Batch of 2 targets.
Target 1
Amino acid sequence: MSGLVWSRDGTDWPNRNASAFVEAAGIRWHVQRMGEGPSLLLIHGTGAATHSWRKLLPLLAQHFSVLAPDLPGHGFTQSPPSYRLSLPGMAADLGTLLRKLEVKPEITVGHSAGAAIAARMCLAGRMTPRLLIALNGAFMPFGGIANHLFSPLANLLVMNPLVPRVFAWQASHAGAVERLIANTGSTIDQDGIALYRKLVRNPVHVAAALRMMANWKLEPLLHDLPRLKTALVLMAATNDRSISPEVARQVREILPSAVIERLPGLGHLAHEEQPHLIAQLIMEHAHANVAEETAQEM
């Protein structure tokens, strides 16, 4: 199976002029860098890529030096060995990328599984931002019987090399991607849908997302979360059908210092639905965090 090819599939990639390719942790990464100012890291979620920040990235770049990578196996970043597509593995590899680029994020924004990766990186000392913003963060494992079935099922799917091809073939059917997006509770523009269609039609991208889900174990992260020293803001969209907004409340029970920011009427892809709102909220929490740290030092 072949992955996405930049010269062919990247011709219409959003913010293409900000793209570069970097070797780190034994793989070739696609990253986007834009803006000047305090360093800000964007980490997308499972099955997405840098395209999901297409409108938010330029807004944040007006105030920050922004770095947004495609996660391993996603978008235009090469896939590592399957066992590396785990929470600790991806946290370690992303940490290696940051060291290679000599980037020390002051603020990190993680969407969905990207928020869990960010938290794991902080806990492991792979980065030390002063503020972590979880955008519909995927911090909780599936409950009940689903918790026992999902990982074995994903492993079975990964073991069958035909599954990613079949999934990609099904995604080529009319309306398939639109239904996937609708099931997140979000409504996004046609450009966004076309970009997701490009991703989910690619078997390598699909295989990486499946392997990531098969290796995803959140219990160790939840066990360690009370040790998180980084200020945590939990942005929770009330119409999210992928990650219940109740997850934010559950995380705050574990980490009482966490702040919850509700996003009324938005879904799982809130940053694609309302990028100006999300940029404004990031700025507000960044300023509030600086003010709080200054007050503590006085």
Target 2
Amino acid sequence: MRVEWKNDDQKPLSLKKLVTNHGVSHRMYSTLKETPNSFMVNGKTIEPSREIEANETVTVNFPPEAEDPAVAVSHEPLDILYEDDNWLVVNKPAGLTSVPGPANSTDTLVNRIKGHLIDEQAIDLRPHIITRLDRFTSGVVLVAKNRLANSYANQALADKTIDKRYLAIVDGQLPNDHVMIDLPIGRVDDHLYREVTESGKASQTEYWVKERLTHATVIEVKLHTGRTHQIRVHLTHSGHPLLGDELYHGPMQLGIQRQALHAYRLSFTDPFQNQKLNFVAPIPTDMQTVIEEGEA
């Protein structure tokens, strides 16, 4: 991909300062320096050591990301909510793993996205999953389609400017309509599950009650940190595990056979368009049925 950035300062800037001011990471800048013809002014290649004069425009050529031959191609369907040159937003179904691993290396979300990019003859063929979800959690996933988008998104994650909200259905009646859980979470020996523990990492989960069912509560959740299984651990610790969450001892007989957790909304400011983008993934059938019946 190619972008043009103007030095709007009233004084010369180093090339590195100019591009890092536009969100290029130090690691990416090092890659650009080692790639021929990465930086140009007036159609001519310049050296990375060159200063950029006031009001001068630099063209930056980002090398394409070739496919990883170790990642298999899948042409299974994707539920695409949005796509442009830089971003892909998909609605991941419950049961689909996000990235390849020992248990599944041929048909994960990444494998499907790679197949989609190949089908549309994209130049960049290494998708970057920005908001990964557990296998049995459904909902919105943001994907960066190129190096620069990935750099922007990682900075947005660090700045906590990507707003992602979940819907969850938990066992029993939560006593308060709005709660901030602030309890550390850590690993339990070598087990898959996590728990609240004094030796864990700081973790904050905020939730609001949306609807009270007969034997369960529907809540909207916002993560202020990103620990593994954070929502599941915090709600289990409070005595209200998610319906269908077998790993954390949630009830399995109340109408849903996987953790009742759905990333239903995501919003962030797209630096390429300089505008706010908002995405909503419809509530999946299994969770919607539990809510509509209201007898859980």
